[in-house]
Amino acid sequence: MSSTGASPWQYFKVTRASDFVVHVEINRPGRLNAFIEPMWLELRKVFETISVDPSVRSIVLSGSGDRAFTTGLDVQAATQSPTLFGPQTSDPARRAANIRRDILGFQECLTAVERCEKPVVCVLHGYSLGLAIDLSTCADVRICSDDTKFAVKEVDIGLAADIGTLTRLPKVVGNYSWVKDVCLSARVFGAQEAEKVGFVSGIYNGKEAAVSAALKWASLVAEKSPVAVQGTKNILDYSRDHSVEDGLKYTAVWNGAALQTVDTGAAMKGGISKKKPTFEKL
Fold it and tell me: pTM of the full predicted structure?
């Protein structure tokens, strides 16, 4: 998994940034990283592959080029979709079933980012529209450059966002009034507003500085026990969608197994001796 040799990926650059850190870049800069159907499918394969790779402990996700993280759906390509714009069946219920399958399939492609066992930090910059919000809400941490222009654009193309924004964004920021504001109006908002509501946790002076900060964070996380890090991510994600009581029970069951790791002792000894511990791959 490096920048050398033939890459198995057509629409993504996947490179080894440092020990245990992988950098995934959306790679269609000539079209402002706008997504076409093969990209959705490849995104899923990329993250499912990385998720179980023991040589990876953290991931940075960004967009190639200087102009955009992604402008979302490639609308021109979408108008060629046989499901939406092809010959119609005589039965609306059957057509609805086909559309529903397509939507669920696309949702699963993005959910692969959220389900990835390894922490994902998403770097947004330039135009970050529509699908950019869907995708970034699947990440664990979001940061951006100071020039980022965000928008939930789906109402402007005649539909309700259906790949994750309307479900995940309210949980990310916890402010339903603001979420409805940006989702119903499709207005553009900037980096300062995104940080104010908690959508991003940091703003940096340009894309290069933001990517550098993300790689630094990812390297810090990668130094820690993968048992502890992956367990923390899993428990946080579970607790977000369940009651406090359920979350506490789930944590107890999880740690009933995870606390038996040798990593705990190594981390404690490292803290006492002031020596950085090392951990086996997971």
Answer: 0.93
